[in-house]
Write a structure and sequence with these properties.
Number of strands: 18
Helix content: 25-40%
Number of helices: 20
Strand order of the largest sheet: 3-4-5-2-1-6-7-11-12
Radius of gyration: 23 Å
Strand content: 15-25%
Oligomer: single chain
Distance between the termini: 11 Å
Shape: globular
Largest sheet: 9 strands, mixed
Bound molecules: adenosine-5'-diphosphate, alpha-D-glucopyranose
């Protein structure tokens, strides 16, 4: 079966978050499992720079101007790239400018991504035509509308990585995008008086997946459905919604082979982790101290990630014997609040407001605990990296966090399944009491070592997910 992924990020070519990590790994795992997969991606400057030589596939005259589809082999997986400088040749973040303002022509930029995806399924490349189109998040959503409008005989899967981003634009663009007027309605793209690219995927795809079983249930409820819970509840009832957990790319995230870190280590040889901790403490100008746990957080600073919960708990938290190192960018308010926190407690807190891939590895390796206090979390990847590096996750019990971290308590200690620390209420108190439990374990080194060993033994490799997607594709 030939499968085409449609996406807007792929690590290491372009990345703003976990979506890129997934597309930088899943197609390659699928290829390894013997599947014929290709990926479609806009040709942003960083992509053009890293990819090198590309070959011509097709020219098209479109609503977004004249464009060219190009092709390159990338580590064994075929990449289709959309060369449309008028839309994609902008440095920095793929979605917004340096002031965090979304580009005004995003409806065209990602409308075109969907259009080209559909055109490949309709035969744009005479050498290769997918049997199945697999789109990711709202940026790919219009592909499913075009496929329906053009009645292309292809199976379709749409994966929700984050339902909070619905790709909302004015319905007035419909004609310009070349979509039929009948699609603008409740039974189609319309969403509270506007058009949602995400809804195109939710409504027209043969099957919807999301990146964890728990999130697949949560999004059918008002609290987490962002207005789509009704539609998703119906699709779930038809057996058209399921959850498949993300994995960890062993080539990028492995403490034994990671060349971003000071000293590699592995389950039976943990000495390197101590060196990595000291290095990280130095990087963040914190005292080199083995006696206190070093808590790390690597995150987009948004409402989703619960950074404000951590900030609200911070003064009480920092009265305890621990250190905190934060790496993140996002909302200016949160960035400023973390800078303030560091200024008030320079001996206990280190903050880096930047995006730094190498430092993120050093944090996962050098930390003792990875914090993920998210309000919602479709899957979450940093807790998976933490497990693999023996950096115990302290997380809110939601979405993929609930599915991948086992809380430390008497029964899970006894049956050796504990891998971290979880809390349910999205409140500073719940976070603080869980930090208290974490510190109890920390002060019991034998217990800590046992939890860490279980964490590091978890198998979150991508081949499991690749198999699950394969089974789904075949069922369609
Ligand atoms: P999300 O996709 O919602 O942001 P995930 O946990 O799935 O959350 O993935 C986040 C990814 O982005 C991880 O690979 C994480 O290490 C990375 N990341 C987030 N912020 C930064 C940063 N400031 N510097 C480096 N990497 C970051
Ligand atoms: C989204 C989610 C995150 C998930 C990632 C990859 O960005 O917020 O939870 O891990 O996509 O699927």
């Amino acid at each position: 079966m030939k499968t085409l992924h449609i996406c807007s990020e792929l690590y290491p070519l372009v990345k703003t978050g976990g979506l890129a990590d997934v597309l930088g790994a899943l197609p390659f795992a699928q290829k390894q499992a013997g599947m014929d997969v290709r990926v479609l991606l806009p040709m942003y400057p960083s992509v053009a720079e890293k990819i090198g030589e590309t070959g011509h596939v097709a020219y098209h005259h479109t609503f977004a101007g004249d464009i060219e589809i190009r092709y390159a082999d990338y580590n064994g997986v075929g990449l289709y790239l959309i060369d449309a400088p008028q839309l994609y040749r902008r440095d920095g973040n793929p979605y917004h400018d340096q002031y965090y303002a979304d580009y005004g022509d995003n409806y065209l930029r990602f409308g075109l991504l969907g259009w080209v995806g559909a055109s490949l399924a309709a035969g744009s490349d005479s050498w290769w035509k997918p049997d199945l189109v697999h789109g990711h998040d709202w940026q790919s959503g219009l592909a499913f509308a075009y496929l329906r409008a053009w009645a292309v005989p292809v199976k379709t899967v749409f994966t929700i990585h984050n339902i909070a981003y619905a790709g909302i634009f004015s319905g007035h663009h419909l004609a310009e995008l070349g979509l039929p007027a009948y699609m603008y309605g409740t039974y189609g793209l319309e969403f509270y008086g506007q058009m949602s690219y995400l809804k195109a995927g939710l409504y027209y795809a043969d099957h919807i997946t999301t990146v964890s079983p728990t999130y697949a249930r949560e999004i059918t409820l008002p609290e987490h459905g962002y207005g789509f819970h009704g539609l998703l509840g119906e699709r779930a009832a038809q057996g058209r919604l399921s959850g498949i957990l993300n994995g960890v790319d062993d080539a990028t995230w492995n403490p034994a082979t990671d060349n971003n870190i000071a000293k590699p280590y592995q389950p039976n040889h943990m000495q390197g982790k101590r060196v990595d901790k000291h290095t990280l403490q130095q990087t963040y100008n914190l005292p080199t101290d083995d006696s206190v746990p070093l808590l790390v957080m690597i995150t987009r600073l948004t409402e989703q990630k619960g950074a404000d919960i951590l900030l609200a708990a911070a003064e009480t938290l920092l009265a305890r014997p621990l250190q905190l190192a934060v790496l993140g960018t996002g909302s200016p308010d949160l960035e400023a609040a973390f800078r303030d926190l560091e200024a008030r407690h320079p001996d206990k807190v280190g903050v880096r407001i930047t995006y730094n891939e190498a430092l993120s590895h050093q944090m996962i390796a050098g930390g003792d605990v990875i914090l993920v206090p998210s309000r919602f979390e479709p899957c979450g990847l940093t807790q998976l990296y933490g497990l693999k590096y023996g950096t115990l996750p302290l997380v809110r019990e939601t979405g993929g966090l609930a599915d991948t971290v086992t809380n430390t308590q008497p029964d899970t200690l006894a049956n050796k399944t504990a891998t971290g620390f979880t809390f349910y209420d999205p409140t500073p108190d719940a976070l603080l009491s869980t930090v208290g439990r974490m510190l109890e374990s920390w002060h019991n080194p034998k217990q800590w070592a046992a939890i860490r060993a279980t964490a590091m033994a978890q198998d979150n490799s991508w081949h499991k997910a690749a198999e699950a997607y394969d089974a789904l594709y075949n069922s369609l």
